[in-house]
Fold this sequence. Notes:
This protein has about 230 residues and is an alpha+beta fold. The protein has six helices and three strands. It has helices at about 10-20, 50-60, 90-105, 115-125, 175, 180-190; strands at about 110-115, 145-150, 155-160. The chain has a three-stranded mixed β-sheet. The radius of gyration is 18 Å and the shape is globular. The two termini are about 30 Å apart. About 25% of the residues are buried.
Amino acid sequence: MGEEYPRGDWADVDIADFVMHRFDPDRMFATPDGHFHLHDGSLSPKSVTFWAGVRNRASEIYGRPATPVDDYVMTEVVHCKSKGDRGVKAAAGNCADRHLDHILALSPAPLLVILGKRARELLVPRWDLGPEFGTAATAGKDEWANLQVRNVGGRDRVIAFLWHPSGMTAPKTFATAYPTQLSRLQELVAGRIAPNAFTRDGTEDTAYFNDASMAGVSEAPRESTS
């Protein structure tokens, strides 16, 4: 039995309500720990592996248990449901052109995390992230290649790469992918440094980032992690 998910006969207001309040405990479209409601009103017996993986990474970057209700946002390039990802690759470019920047513009997140090969292949050329970003040769080996600062959705953000939580390829954690920069990414999400603190000046020979003067920068909203 499938998830109770927006269909073509849903009113726009109901679709928006689902998307904006999917994990709210008082709405119960899905639970914060990753179970979703089925068509008969019951909860899925297993949690969604992807959701659990994202929640674990958000908890890692916050340094405390995180929740999708308040701490982070997930989005996809293609939002329509498809069995076995059929049609996703063909639709990705069109969906991104129509919707992605508008979605990201709604978020104040200073950190965007691209998860997995499929998203990387679409977004690397779109955001000019460089040919080494998110490749097997650099992920978990070259922190510089996989931390880029770009203006996306109208604001500067740090863009990072991790392998997909549901896949078999590692690294999947910030600690293993960015061992020298995890603490600085945590500072970024807390609002104590800005994305431009991760801008390279061309003189680095190790995974070291320039300090930035952050007087007057307040803590980032809790919902703005990724």
